[in-house]
Design a protein that fits this description.
It is a single chain. By secondary structure, the chain is mainly alpha-helical. It has one domain. The protein is 68% helix and 4% strand. It contains 16 helices and 4 strands. The strands form 2 sheets. It has a two-stranded antiparallel sheet.
């Protein structure tokens, strides 16, 4: 019996036509998702700059420009189709932050100076997430974007590991060993954030997918991503990742949680204890987490001082805050003398520099101080609604649900130690859009393969 071979003369015409149809479908899918994938891919371009911490300024990056193009393309598609892009619930949840943002700008002591902050907040928390949500059509699109994020994390992580091994990373304890990827010494949280996103997504896919090559690949990726995350020396990213992955394990079942926890514990022991992956520095960094009150280092002292300053700003204007971009202007008049002039940055191809401390490094306190209680309730309320909706759809698809709930949980925890700012901020908007698709799209669309 002769077997027909695709692409060879004489092959079954039906088989060839089926292959062509499949190729055309994947080409259409890739073209439809290309604006989102471009934003993800362009984060690999070393660009420095970006928004300053607090999301209040900066020159922007090529990925930021691509996110603007994504919004424009999405708008054109919606106008041409004539269909309503968002459900009523989605429009309310995603649009809720606009109220607090605009109110804070109007009531600001310097409304003109607040306008760039309005544009940045609306871009990150409203427009780009909505564009990503509208662009994703079904669960296959969701999977493509999720794996693209994992791929970004693996590439950034590989650069970070090389930086650690070759001593070309950012400066840490006098040695250029801190893994920062392509983000440079001025954004030491960039690579840690990207790798943590990818690790949480891989964990969600591994726990929620059926047994097969996809689950195996996700497990392998999660194990690989653990190495650069450790070498980032980012305490906030460590804490958020451990708590988030723990929550994902519990949601997937108690028995599985126990088995996976033991396996991950053994992997950490092998990496740190056996291969010595940054063992001494990692041990010291982990120990410093428990020393936030007893003999804290200067970075912890600065953070406490900035948190206290944000609290004083809020008490002065409890409902609407001091206005967007107002934290740097009001910092010195509300901070104690314990605050240093800035943090030291060096390495990863950059000369020594002092980085000014222009935000409280806590998203909730940043919003509270600049937008007041109304702004915080609007913004955090939107995030909480997304998380609750994601969890309520757990039975519709464990893989997507664990990914969406995981990345939202990670971000909400990380916001206790960080705020928006830097080139990686635009990736957060893509993450929010990915989670929003699962949480807010109609159940009919979610069920589609």
């Amino acid at each position: 019996m002769t077997t027909a071979v695709v692409g060879v003369p004489g092959a079954d015409p039906g088989v060839r036509e089926g292959v062509r149809a499949g190729v055309r479908e994947w080409a259409r899918r890739a073209w439809a998702l290309s604006p989102v994938l471009a934003v993800i891919a362009l984060l690999l371009v070393p660009g420095g700059g970006g928004g300053t911490q607090g999301g209040t300024g900066g020159t922007g990056t090529i990925a930021d420009a691509a996110s603007g193009l994504l919004v424009l393309i999405c708008l054109v598609r919606v106008v041409r189709s004539g269909a309503r892009p968002l459900t009523r619930t989605a429009a309310v949840v995603l649009g809720l932050p606009v109220f607090g943002i605009c109110l804070a700008a109007i009531t600001s002591n310097d409304p003109g100076a607040s306008l760039p902050g309005v544009a940045r907040y609306v871009q990150i928390f409203v427009l780009v997430p909505a564009a990503v949500m509208v662009t994703i059509r079904d669960r296959r699109d969701f999977a493509v974007v999720a794996w693209a994020l994992i791929g970004l994390g693996l590439l950034e992580g590989a650069v970070g590991v090389v930086q650690y091994l070759t001593g070309t990373g950012a400066s840490y304890q006098g040695a250029d060993v801190r893994a920062v990827g392509t983000f440079g010494a001025t954004d030491v949280m960039g690579m840690a954030t990207v790798v943590a996103y990818a690790l949480v997504i891989a964990t969600g896919l591994a726990l929620g997918a059926r047994a097969g090559r996809a689950r195996t690949a996700a497990l392998v990726c999660a194990g690989l991503l653990l190495v650069p995350l450790v070498l980032s020396f980012s305490r906030g990213a460590w804490i958020a990742t451990v708590l988030t992955c723990g929550a994902q394990l519990l949601l997937s079942g108690l028995r599985r949680a126990g088995r996976v926890a033991l396996a991950m514990g053994a992997l950490v022991v092998v990496l740190v204890g056996g291969f010595g992956v940054g063992s001494e520095m990692v041990k010291e960094r982990v120990t410093s987490i428990t020393q936030v009150t007893a003999a804290p280092d200067q970075s912890v002292t600065d953070r406490y001082t900035l948190w206290a300053a944000a609290g004083r700003m809020w008490r002065g204007d409890p409902l609407t805050g001091v206005g967007l971009k107002g934290f740097p202007a009001y910092r010195d008049s509300n901070a104690s003398l314990a605050l240093s002039s800035g943090s030291d940055t060096a390495g990863a191809g950059a000369a020594f520099a002092r980085q000014p401390l222009l935000s409280p490094h806590n998203m909730y306190l940043l919003v509270l101080s600049e937008q007041g209680l109304i702004g915080l309730l609007a913004l955090a309320g939107s995030w909480a609604a997304l998380l609750v909706a994601a969890l309520r759809r757990l039975r519709l698809g464990a893989d997507c649900a664990l990914v969406a709930a995981g990345i939202l949980t990670w971000q909400l925890i990380d916001f206790f130690y960080a705020d928006i700012g830097g080139p990686s901020t635009v990736l957060m908007s893509v993450i929010l859009g990915l989670a929003a698709w699962w949480s807010l799209t109609s159940r009919t669309e979610v069920r589609r393969a």
